[in-house]
């Protein structure tokens, strides 16, 4: 005789609250933001992001300590120059963490699983780009805030002027985060293997900076300072620095800066084009992966 048994466990419809698209988008954003810092993952995944964050904080803390002892305003690092000065650390953070956000689902072919639920392709992309941008803004903005707060505690002169400089620098941090994060995400999305993604992102930043530096050096030897300034548009860190200098009133941290207010407008338009173009490219990339 058969020992099989059929259990009638019934079926009950879900009668709870439907949380909707906003909740899905917020959940994806929080998940990716946590992943950018290795939260919710093994301990080894937290080492690199938190180590880089600590390195980013050290110059700010040292600068505030030096100012507190000497009371010399020149010992404080300029807010707007913090990101260009530590561009190598920021580039490493983008190179190591962008593949975590952009390519893991592609590498393990699980993108269709996301879209089997009510998750839009654009929502998926915006959550990832938003998380990467937020992580970069925290990486750059926190040390700048430490500089400003430390200066206030140690009684820096012209506190109202310093506030304006700080707010301008924070606006620059937002532009840095959007541009660098967008570039890193696009490059990583087309290199599913993480090691290749890290190398590709570093190569993009290094090659663009190296080529622009060579062009600017040649232009300077030929006293063609206009070409030297406009060439900076093609290196990400220099591009954002042009926005800071021409539109936010910061002091230059780069060799060449595009001339006049029109240089700042062109640089800002190029930054917006990079971000919008990156979102469009990522949309097509994930949409294609979701159909495969």
Give your account of this protein's structure.
The protein has one domain (21-291). It is globular. The longest helix has 33 residues, at 121-153. The model has no long low-confidence stretch (mean pLDDT 90). The protein contains twelve helices and no strands. With 292 residues, the protein is mainly α. Helix 8 packs across helix 9 and helix 8 (159-189) packs antiparallel against helix 11.
Number of domains: 1
What is the 3D form? globular
Question: Separation of termini?
Answer: 47 Å
Helical fraction: over 70%
**Global Rg:** 23 Å
H/E topology pattern? HHHHHHHHHHHH
Number of strands: 0
| Biggest pleated sheet | none
**Which structural category do the helix and sheet elements fall into?**
mainly alpha
In terms of per-residue confidence, which ranges show pLDDT below 50 for 5 or more consecutive residues? Answer: none
Indicate the mean pLDDT: 90
The number of helices is 12
Residues in β-strands, percent:
under 5%
């Amino acid at each position: 005789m058969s020992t099989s048994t059929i259990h009638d466990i019934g079926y009950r419809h879900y009668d709870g609250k439907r949380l909707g698209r906003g909740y899905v988008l917020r959940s994806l954003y929080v998940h990716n933001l946590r992943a950018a810092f290795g939260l919710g993952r093994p301990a080894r995944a937290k080492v690199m992001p938190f180590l880089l964050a600590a390195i980013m904080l050290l110059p700010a803390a040292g600068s505030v300590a030096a100012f507190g002892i000497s009371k010399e305003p020149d010992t404080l690092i300029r807010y707007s120059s913090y990101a260009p000065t530590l561009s190598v650390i920021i580039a490493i953070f983008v190179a190591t963490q962008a593949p975590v956000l952009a390519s893991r689902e592609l590498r393990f072919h699980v993108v269709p699983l996301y879209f089997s639920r009510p998750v839009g392709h654009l929502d998926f992309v915006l959550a990832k780009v938003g998380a990467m941008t937020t992580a970069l803004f925290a990486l750059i903005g926190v040390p700048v805030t430490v500089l400003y707060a430390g200066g206030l505690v140690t009684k820096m002169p012209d506190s109202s002027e310093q506030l304006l400089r700080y707010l301008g620098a924070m606006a620059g941090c937002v532009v840095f985060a959007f541009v660098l994060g967008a570039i890193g995400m696009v490059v990583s999305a087309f290199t599913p293997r993480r090691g290749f993604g890290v190398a590709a992102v570093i190569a993009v930043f290094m090659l663009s900076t190296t080529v622009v530096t060579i062009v600017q050096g040649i232009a300077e030897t030929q006293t063609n300072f206009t070409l030297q300034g406009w060439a900076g548009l093609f290196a990400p860190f220099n591009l954002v620095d042009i926005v800071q200098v021409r539109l936010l009133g910061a002091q230059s941290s780069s060799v060449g800066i595009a001339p006049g207010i029109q240089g700042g407008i062109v640089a800002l338009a190029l930054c917006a084009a990079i971000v919008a173009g990156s979102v469009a490219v990522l949309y097509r990339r994930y949409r294609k992966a979701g159909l495969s």
